[in-house]
Design a protein that fits this description.
CATH class of the largest domain in chain B: Mainly Beta
Distance between the termini of chain B: 57 Å
Number of strands of chain A: 9
Structural class of chain A: alpha/beta
CATH architecture of the largest domain in chain A: 3-Layer(aba) Sandwich
Strand content of chain A: 15-25%
Largest interface: A-B, 66 and 81 residues
Strand order of the largest sheet of chain A: 3-4-2-5-6-7-8
Oligomer: heterodimer
CATH class of the largest domain in chain A: Alpha Beta
CATH architecture of the largest domain in chain B: Beta Barrel
Radius of gyration of chain A: 21 Å
Shape of chain A: globular
CATH topology of the largest domain in chain A: Rossmann fold
Radius of gyration of chain B: 26 Å
Largest sheet of chain A: 7 strands, mixed
Helix content of chain A: 25-40%
CATH superfamily of the largest domain in chain B: TonB-dependent receptor, beta-barrel domain
Chain lengths: 182, 683
């Protein structure tokens, strides 16, 4: 019984320590999770991109559609409700190819690339849908921005042709930061 | 919420003492909440940073697995190759023993895994499914998951070990009763060239490993390895045999352990070929199965061979396929010395041989659904159990059987909304000699925020009696005699888990579970004391709570703490269950030691691990006291040689594990302080 009590006291002590470590988390300037960092990148991209004028879906909310099995799903969900340029509000929802028209940004994962691109091709030119791929096995020239992790850093490539086709204007500052030649 | 955490301190002292047990639970919940809100702020702050600044940030590699574990419909534990090196684990049993909710018992022949406060005496880990790279490793006679020195793989070749607690029959079929252990091996490219490793340790133990890892011109990845290990072992004292005729109860030179392990793996494009072979001879100092005490001939030999071929292909952009072909062989030879009279050497031989195939498809063609379905088939081509006396010759058992095991399953991961995922699974399984069974699994994963997941899990599992339980009938002292007809045992578990991983460097987990086991197959003493019988005699209910927290700091420090409280009971029996501790505690701390600048020394890492197991009952009802073992390891690199020094049971604690029916001693004394020095050199 004495031993049981000792174990129990130990438990109380370490749970207090746990509490302490929990609080110190935010202050410690430690490496960040890949997914969180990629979400921050995506939020940044939005600031540098201009959607075509007169697009009905461009006013009001800015809808981010994320593949249901993307590892970025959780991290992106925290962007919901944040303010984007031109007074728009970011909305995050799951990608469904049938209602792809409502999406201003697509975050694609390996499995969704084909069906999503097929749906995009069916849309008229300058449709104003920004496609972003995350850790794609095969680079696809129809995707505007490709995100990938390389040796502990997040890098991205921009395909200017694909952007032009989609009717998107990308700021030169973002183009400069992109990895040349993707 | 934060105010609530101060409340317990304002309570009158008497009430506070009464609620002592509640405090940690409440506290832990509050802490998780507090950390979550702090984390949310931190993340928002990161989103608002300019891109140029984001591009300077470094990501952790650990986040990849942490995130996957967070997504999984289970409260998974993972031990990596780095942890194995850092904490100086010598066997798979030690790796598993460091995980939340698990504990190990050893009877100087085999290591037994207790899961969540529950271990049945005489259970050769039949209720845990052991996988190596996803392929079943349990043999087809005892369904044994070998985790001690009889495990055919050298730990140096292991990339990580994952443990998924809870019933996994909906995915894996039988044996995934209390949990699934998956051992993932390293690739040849991780070794990059020839490597030699040698170690020496207490009780005359020595080990030598030679491995080669390479990538050929065609991109094929190769890994070849051979290990030889031997332990002389200390003389063991058993009070139950303390008589002048038995050398005062001391078993001399009988705790030896000799093993050989071979491993080969080839990986090219979608194809992986694996061969693992292990042989171990273990002296038996305990006179198990009513043998004559201290006879040098008493020993157990285990030989295992496993072959596996795996092929993975992306058939379509939204359809992936995995096909496996595997074969295995297992042999057990036990030499037992009996004084009938005359003094006779009795030999127990079991031979198992099987092959099997597994096909699995994973489709994401349906929006929001990740569907997987598959088929597992195993053919037991040989299940053979013999028992003979060598001189004078006599045969006591000659049992043969063959059989088929078939399973069909379907699973769906359905993203209901960005923050809610439903996991549903169903599996039908049939094994020769047992009725077919359908087992479901349901999991609901809710994302409180990007870093916090709440998981509600429910599942069932079954285990048909194995060939040993079915056929092993020997009317000899310590032998098993026929009981009533055996049927499958079943378990039903419900679990609620809260996981919080704000960064790749920290993780907090809280879980509460309840399991009900019915028709548990248990070994009991049959009437006369030296005969045993198997029967579906028990029903066990287990419920408990577990908490785990891990934090890594940038300086290289790491802290991990896990605590489990569980209560296992058999409602039909007044006395507590055997080998069922109420408390399990694991604390790990590691840090980097840097030499003073200019001193020219090399940096090293030290690790301290404390493992506490609450008090346990023996079969005779004696309470064994709770104990905490402390292990310390220091690893560094001197002149291109990786050096690791480990001291196990640092404070030389005397402790014992409860024994099974087949050993006269009710508790088996375990090792005191032991040492190990390990050197590894890569050419």
């Amino acid at each position: 019984m004495c031993n049981t009590l000792r174990l129990r006291n130990l438990l109380v002590v370490w749970l207090w320590m746990l509490c302490g470590s929990g609080w110190s988390l935010a202050r410690a300037n430690e490496p960040v999770a890949e997914q969180d960092l990629k979400a921050a990148y995506i939020f940044n991209f939005i600031q540098f991109i201009e959607w075509p004028e007169g697009d009905a879906a461009a006013s009001g909310d800015l809808t981010l559609c994320v593949s249901p099995f993307s590892p970025l799903k959780r991290a992106l969900a925290t962007l919901d409700g944040k303010q984007a340029p031109k007074g728009r509000t970011v909305r995050v929802r799951l990608l469904e190819t049938a209602s792809l028209r409502q999406c201003r940004v697509l975050i694609l994962h390996n499995a969704d690339v084909e069906p999503a691109l097929r749906a995009l091709r069916a849309l008229p030119a300058a449709h104003g849908v920004l496609s972003i791929s995350d850790e794609l096995t095969f680079v696809n020239p129809e995707i505007v921005i490709a995100l990938t992790e390389q040796q502990g850093r997040i890098v991205f490539g921009i395909n200017a042709d694909a952007a032009a086709k989609a009717g998107l204007t990308i700021s030169s500052r973002l183009l400069r930061l992109a990895k040349a030649g993707r | 919420m934060a105010r609530g955490s101060r409340n317990p301190q304002r309570q009158p002292p008497r009430q506070r003492a009464a609620r002592l047990l509640m405090v940690p639970r409440v506290l832990a919940l509050l802490c998780a909440g507090a950390a979550a809100s702090v984390q949310a702020q931190a993340q928002v702050a990161m989103v608002d940073l300019p891109l140029e600044q984001l591009m300077q940030m470094q990501v952790t590699t650990a986040s990849r697995y942490a995130q996957t574990a967070l997504e999984a419909p289970a409260a998974v534990s993972v031990v990596t190759a780095d942890d194995i090196r850092l904490f100086g684990y010598r066997t798979l049993a030690e790796v598993l023993g460091s995980m939340r909710g698990l504990y190990i018992s050893y009877d100087r022949a085999y290591h037994y895994l207790g899961t969540r406060g529950f271990a049945t005496p005489g259970d050769y880990n039949t209720r845990v499914l052991l996988l190596v790279n996803g392929v079943r490793f349990n043999d087809n006679i005892y369904d044994q998951a070998s985790i001690g020195s009889d495990f055919p793989l050298d730990l140096d070749l292991v990339d990580r070990v994952e443990f998924v607690p809870g019933p996994g029959s909906a995915v894996y079929g039988a044996n995934a009763f209390f949990g699934v252990v998956n051992v993932i091996t390293r690739d040849g490219r991780q070794l990059a060239g020839p490597q030699v490793s040698t170690e020496v340790g207490s009780h005359g133990s020595a080990k030598l490993r030679f491995s080669v890892g390479t990538v050929d011109a065609q991109g094929g990845d190769w890994l070849l390895s051979a290990t030889r290990a031997a332990t002389r072992g200390a003389d063991q004292y058993y009070p139950a045999y303390d008589a002048p005729a038995n050398h005062g109860g001391v078993a001399q030179r009988l705790d030896y352990d000799r093993s050989t392990q071979l491993f080969a793996r080839m990986h090219r494009e979608g194809l992986t070929l694996t061969l693992a072979h292990g042989e171990r001879t273990k002296g038996v100092p305990t006179a198990a199965f009513s043998q004559v005490f201290n006879d040098p001939r008493s020993r157990f030999i285990d030989k295992s061979t496993r072959l596996a071929a795996e092929y993975t292909a992306q058939l379509q952009p939204s359809l992936a396929f995995t096909g496996r072909l595997h074969a295995g062989r297992y042999q057990y030879v036990g030499d037992y010395v009996y004084d009938y009279p005359p003094l006779t050497l009795n030999r127990d031989v079991s031979n198992g041989q099987w092959w099997g195939t597994e096909w699995q498809w994973v489709s994401t063609a349906l929006a929001r659904h990740k569907l997987s379905w598959g088929l597992d088939y195993r053919r037991d081509t040989r299940i053979e159990q013999l028992n003979i006396d060598l001189d004078p010759p006599a045969q006591h058992l000659d049992a043969h059987r063959k059989g088929n095991v078939l399973g069909l399953y379907v699973q769906d991961e359905f993203a209901l909304s960005p923050d809610l995922t439903l996991h549903a699974g169903l599996r039908w399984g049939k094994q020769s000699g047992s009725a077919g069974a359908i087992h479901p699994r349901l999991g609901l994963v809710y994302w409180w925020n990007a870093a916090t997941a709440l998981k509600l899990l429910h599942g069932t599992a079954y285990r048909p009696p194995n060939a040993y339980e079915r056929d092993y009938r020997v009317d000899l002292p310590g032998g098993v005699v026929e009981g009533v007809g055996l049927r499958s045992e079943r378990v039903r578990t419900t679990e609620l888990a809260l996981e919080h991983a704000p960064t790749g460097a920290s993780r907090v987990l809280l879980t509460a579970f309840r399991s009900a086991v019915t028709d548990l197959i248990a070994q009991d003493a049959a009437g006369s004391t030296d005969r045993l019988t198997f029967g579906n005699t028990r029903a066990v209910q287990v419920h408990g709570l577990e908490a785990e927290a891990e934090q890594r700091w940038q300086g290289g420090q790491r802290l991990r703490m896990a605590y489990g409280w569980q209560k296992a009971r058999d409602p039909s029996q007044p006395q507590p269950l055997t080998n069922a501790p109420r408390h399990l505690l694991k604390v790990q701390w590691s840090d980097t030691l840097r030499p003073a600048p200019g001193s020219g020394g090399t940096a090293g890492r030290y690790a301290i691990e404390a493992i506490g197991i609450g008090s346990r009952s023996t079969l005779q009802g004696t309470r064994l006291p709770a104990h905490v073992l402390t292990h310390a390891t220091y690893s560094t690199r001197i002149a291109d040689v990786d050096v690791s020094v480990g001291v196990y049971n640092l404070f030389n604690r005397r402790y014992a594990d409860p024994a099974s029916f087949d050993i006269r001693e009710e508790a088996i004394r375990q090792d005191g302080r032991t040492y190990r020095l390990k050197l590894t050199y890569a050419f």
